[in-house]
Automatic annotation (TrEMBL):
Gene3D superfamilies: P-loop containing nucleotide triphosphate hydrolases. This is Metal ABC transporter ATP-binding protein. Belongs to the ABC transporter superfamily. It comes from Anaerosacchariphilus polymeriproducens. The keyword Magnesium does not apply. The lineage of its organism: Bacteria, Bacillati, Bacillota, Clostridia, Lachnospirales. SMART domains: AAA. Keywords: ATP-binding, Nucleotide-binding, Transport. One of its GO terms (molecular function) is ATP binding. Residues 4-234 form the ABC transporter domain.
Length: 237
């Protein structure tokens, strides 16, 4: 059964439709990359998946027992977040708050889980450092660990490499791919970079004036829309 089932979905703001007729399903274990130019509706769709915005028509179903609280979300970082005066471990652990109900303290299992995520993302040594003193790339990894703590079933990443240099970006992509391949995490990632998307994703959702393509990465590369947007570059590499 699919984790996300998007059926005939359209979104609008104040009566103006910004994206219409989306139809796709995300199964467990997939790495879906949502691509499209500025204003195509990528962030709006993410809001819909997180159940923060209702479609103007159609429905987004969460399946396989997935609850909104089990979706880990990494948004684009704001300037205020960059200056957050807490330790790395506190930031990562705060991802568990969603799952706590009314009890405002962490259990041992929460702390163990947070430590495990730091180790998996190869930043265990940063645990006691102050978050605001880290580099942009380190901060982004910490926020990824926080998102992993927030949701085990589905990870939603909105432009996770924005502001990072090419080396840091490649490092982030490597870790995200490791989460998908080694931990079997289901991932939905928004990206501007089509070339990177086709390297790491299993599936591509391309938004333009509507849904231009949804399916396997390899089929995307062979498709008319894929060929057009990749400009034949995949065949050159
Ligand atoms: N809160 C809002 N109120 C009104 N219009 C909005 C709002 N948020 C987004 N829009 C409009 O909806 C359309 C889709 O925006 P959205 O941010 O989802 O696109 P995007 O593909 O994520 O763009 P980008 O790549 O620039 O982040 C745009 O025309 C945008 O101006």
């Amino acid at each position: 059964m699919s984790l996300i089932n998007c059926k005939n979905v359209s979104f609008s703001y104040e009566g103006r439709t910004v994206i219409s007729n989306l139809n796709f399903e995300v199964e467990k274990g997939q790495f879906v990359c949502i691509i499209g130019e500025n204003g195509a509706g990528k962030s709006t769709l993410i809001k819909g998946i997180l159940q923060l915005k209702n479609p103007s028509s159609g429905s987004i179903f969460l399946g396989d027992g997935l609850k909104e609280k089990q979706i880990g979300y990494l948004s684009q970082q704001t300037i205020v977040q960059r200056d957050f005066p807490a330790s790395v471990f506190e930031v990562v652990l705060s991802g568990r708050l969603n799952n706590q109900g009314f009890l405002p303290f962490y259990k041992k299992s929460d702390k163990d889980y947070a430590k495990k995520q730091l180790e998996f993302l190869e930043i265990g040594d940063l645990k006691n450092r102050c978050y605001r003193e880290l580099s942009g790339g380190q901060q982004q990894r910490v926020l990824l660990a926080r998102a992993l703590c927030a949701g085990r079933k589905l990870l939603v990443l909105d432009e996770p490499v924005t502001g990072l240099d090419p080396v840091m970006s490649a490092e982030m992509y490597r870790l995200i791919e490791k989460l998908n391949k080694k931990e079997d995490r289901t991932i939905i990632m928004v990206s501007h970079d089509i070339k990177e998307a086709v390297v790491y994703a299993t599936h591509i959702l391309h938004l333009g004036k509507g849904q231009l393509f949804y399916g396997l990465k390899d089929d995307y590369i062979k498709s008319e829309v894929g060929k057009f947007f990749l400009g034949g570059r995949m065949n050159d590499t």
